[in-house]
Amino acid sequence: MRLFKAILLLMLVVSIIPTLMVGWLSVSHTRELLIRDAQELAQERVKQLRLKAESFLEDPTERVVGLSSVPGGFFTLPGDTQRLHIAAVLNQRPELLALTVFGADRQRLPGLQAFAVHDMAPSGVAEHEERARALLDEGLTGVRYSDVVASHGGAGGGPVVTLAFPVGDPVQGYMAADITLAGLRQMLAQERVGSTGFAYLADRHGRLITGGGDLGAVGDDVSKRLPLAHLLKQREGTPDTELFHVGNFGEGRDAVVSAYSVLPEAGWAIVSEQPVEHAYRQVETMERRILLGLGGAILVALVLAAIFSRNLTQPLKTFIATSLELARGKFGVEVHLKQKNELGELAQTFNYMSKQLMAYDMETRGLYESLEKGYLETIVALANSIDSKDAYTRGHSQRVGDVAVEIGKELKLTERELRQLQYGGILHDIGKIGIPENILCKQSRLTDQEMSLMREHPAIGDAIIGPVTFLGSVRACVRHHHERWDGTGYPDKLKGEAIPMLARIVACADTFDACTSTRPYQKAMPLEKAMEILDNLSGAQLDPKVVLALRAVLAQRGVRLEGHRQPVKLAS
């Protein structure tokens, strides 16, 4: 119960103190501060949006205007070079949809018109040229922008603006380009003003260019909206003045906190609107004060919680460390706690469990070792029954098992696979029990019929150990140790990687022992001569990777050969 009371007290302290502090801070703020903070936030938002919109419009504009200042003068360049410059500008600025060059007589120059094929249809090119001619007819003295339109000739129907400017003094010609405002539209659509507000862009006549909210399509009249109507009225007397304003517009539920500014080059208005009832709940100053209060409450709560949690965290750390030791197999470890509460009782229970696990583990290990010893004795007895039929192969099965295990270690096999190699090496010739002794012990070369019978011993061995469940994993060694890497072996003519890895290792160890032990038809070979033969068989009869592993074993630690008590190594 002491632990429960401590946790309950901690929860009460942590929850009540922050609640009281937040309530006190919230009541202490005045409406005047909220209004000022909301308006400052709207003002800063519009400034940032204006900078983004100006940058979006200025970057492609500067790129197009840059054509007029190419070295030597654009209109003095060869036609091919002029077209290359135009194509380069279109490729570098994806916002540019079309670019047309006009002569001093305001007629389009042949071959000096380019457009984005994938973003602009031929009808859109015609519309572009029409807007450009309208700008030229106004008598240009610098860069001028047309009214924004919704392009229906491509570009997804997004807002498009045309710019035009004269080149040279006196004028040598004119250039015009279409800029898609799709990126600007996407930027404004994603701009969130609180939870319900939005920002939009309108031209000098009060028509919508793009923006968030459900204001309508490009070109729709939005001049009746209160912030924009206020802006248009301000511009009636001074149309070229750079305007900026922030304040409240409207009354009641329709009241909004709004800020607007003007892009001087294009004359567009950027407007931000947010309902008053939402703006005054989400001002930055309130959030900072609330966070300050919560921070102070959390600090107090943490100090108090540290006092109560110390007696909880230290025992838990001990439990964690001891549990990890137990999980790693160190049975019998204990947790030493002097506390007389639920944690103390848990420690006693844990210690009892650990001791019981240690007892079960010792008992299980004894049973496992006894069972494994019985398995090995059974396997050795089976191997001895083979060796007893042929004095020349006595000890062969045991040596094959030992060599196979060494190769397996070199190939980084698991402990389980090494045990299977040991069993498989000892039992690989168990099928010879079923071969007549006159064939098995024959001193001369076997006839074809006798050889056919001898080649049945892998299948016979497989049939013998098949019913023995615990030997199921070594059947591949018994059945396939005479398969060849090139697929000409027996009994199943497996080839390459299709031969089980353990069988390939036993086959190599079997061949090696046959070369290094005395048989009726040959004397034991020196280690170097035996490895020379295995190298020749590599890639034909034996797996090259296994042969290399055997060579590494012989060079590093050696293996026990017939007639040798100590491992024999290859000469370095």
TrEMBL record:
Which positions make up the signal peptide?
none
The record describes its membrane topology as: Multi-pass membrane protein
Predominantly, its location class is: membrane
Fetch the SMART domains from UniProt: HAMP, HDc
Q: Which InterPro entries does the annotation name?
A: dCache_1 (IPR033479), HAMP_dom (IPR003660), HD/PDEase_dom (IPR003607), HD_GYP_dom (IPR037522)
- Please report the stretch or stretches of sequence annotated as the HAMP domain: 310-362
Pfam families attached to this UniProt entry = dCache_1, HAMP, HD_5
Q: Report keywords, A-Z.
A: Cell membrane, Membrane, Transmembrane, Transmembrane helix
UniProt superkingdom: Bacteria
**UniProt record, GO biological process:** signal transduction
Domain (HD-GYP) spans 371-566
Name the residues that span the membrane.
6-27, 290-308
Per the record, its GO cellular-component terms are: plasma membrane
Q: Where in the cell is it found?
A: Cell membrane
Q: What protein does this entry describe? A: HD domain-containing protein
